[in-house]
Design a protein that fits this description.
With 340 residues, this protein is of the alpha/beta class. It folds into two domains: 196 residues, Medium-chain alcohol dehydrogenases, catalytic domain (Quinone Oxidoreductase, Chain A, domain 1, Alpha-Beta Complex), CATH 3.90.180; 128 residues, NAD(P)-binding Rossmann-like Domain (Rossmann fold, 3-Layer(aba) Sandwich), CATH 3.40.50. The chain is built from ten helices and 17 strands. Strands 3, 4, 5, 8, 9, 16 and 17 form a seven-stranded mixed beta sheet that branches. Bound molecules: zinc ion (2 copies). The site of one zinc ion (ZN) has 9 residues, from α2.
Length: 340
């Protein structure tokens, strides 16, 4: 038997004993080391995420150690792994194009399928990415997020010397700031209302930080780019009210990467700037398996440091407290961990 934290209904956790799953052909049983909780989990917890069926076991940003394997598995028992939570069919037109993130029958671990808020989880081997010994299993839970950032920045092109604005400096904003810096972007302007997040952005080597509550961000960006406007704006807030000013702070020919999403309509949106400034709007969804290896390498080489992004840790039986604290004060959280 194993313990698992089941979300019976929005805001109602129950710790339950369930039979330990057995790995079938091509699959492995993973003892979960830690799960990071993100905004997607929070929206499932509060009942705001559309289309979720309860009860559900949350958890999709997880690491662990392979404990047992089924037939035809190459990964050894004892391997330390980070989990790819995008469960794709492998057979639809999107999967065959290599776009597993767009799979027409895709499910997310911890949403359509029971996730990692459990002591153990069974996954097909192809969803397990080995971790080198120098990366700690708790920090490595952030590699899934880093892989989504890598995926998004691969969909735009950042050349050395490009000016990049990153709206929002939560965990994903900070990682975007860091990865853009590694690509040679300059200047990188990090925008956040929180002073402590702007401090972290400077540690990620942002060239300038802007507090949008005290400053006109568009004017600041123009001043920092010799009046030209930015080459690229990355929105990590998903706030539909920022789309208009994001388009305003771009140079003609600039690119807006809509990394974070919202179900709210964008008010007063017109397509005219797309014509007059010939702007490009780019969407990005999750990650593909090929994003894991470069993300692991960024952490293993020390180019990206993840430890500072973990702002709290709770044992599995206190999952309800973890989510309660997160909901009460989301601005103080980067990532919280749940450790079985
Ligand atoms: Zn997530
Ligand atoms: Zn598919």
């Amino acid at each position: 038997m194993m313990r698992t934290a089941v979300l019976q209904a929005p805001r109602r956790f129950e710790v339950a004993e369930r039979p330990t799953p057995r790995p079938g052909r091509g699959a492995a049983l993973v003892r979960v080391a830690a799960t990071a909780v993100c905004h997607t989990d929070l929206s499932i917890y509060t009942g705001q995420h559309p289309g979720v069926r309860y009860p559900v076991v949350l958890g999709h940003e997880a690491t662990g150690v392979v404990e047992a394997v089924g037939p035809d598995v190459r990964i050894p028992v004892g391997a330390r792994v980070v989990i790819n939570p995008i469960i794709a069919c492998g057979a639809c037109d999107c999967c065959l194009r290599g776009d597993e993130n767009l799979c027409r029958r895709a499910g997310l671990l911890g949403r359509e399928l029971d996730g990692s808020l459990a002591e153990q989880v069974v996954l097909a081997e192809r969803y397990l990415h080995p971790l080198p010994p120098e990366i700690g299993l708790e920090a490595a839970t952030l590699i899934e997020t880093l892989a989504t950032v890598h995926h998004a920045q691969r969909r735009v092109r950042i050349d050395p010397g490009d000016s990049v604005v990153v709206l929002g400096q939560g965990a994903t904003g900070l990682l975007h700031t860091r990865v853009a810096k590694l690509a040679g972007a300059s200047p990188i302007v990090a925008v956040s209302r929180s002073a402590w997040k702007r401090d972290l952005a400077r540690r990620m080597r942002a060239d300038a930080t802007v507090d949008p509550s005290g400053r006109d961000v568009v004017a600041e960006v123009l001043a920092l780019t010799a009046g030209h406007g930015a080459d690229l704006v990355i929105d990590t807030t998903g706030d539909p009210r920022l789309v208009g000013s994001a388009m305003e702070m771009l140079r003609p020919g600039g690119v807006l990467l809509l990394y974070a999403i919202s179900h709210e309509p964008v008010q007063d949106f017109t397509t005219f700037p797309m014509y007059v400034k010939e702007l490009t709007l780019v969407g990005s969804r999750a990650l593909v398996p090929a994003d894991f290896e470069p993300a692991v390498r960024l952490v293993a080489t020390g180019a990206v440091e993840l430890d500072g992004l973990i702002t709290g840790s709770y044992p599995l039986h206190r999952a309800a407290a973890a989510f309660g604290d997160y909901e009460r004060d989301p601005d103080r959280v980067l990532r919280i961990l749940i450790v079985p």
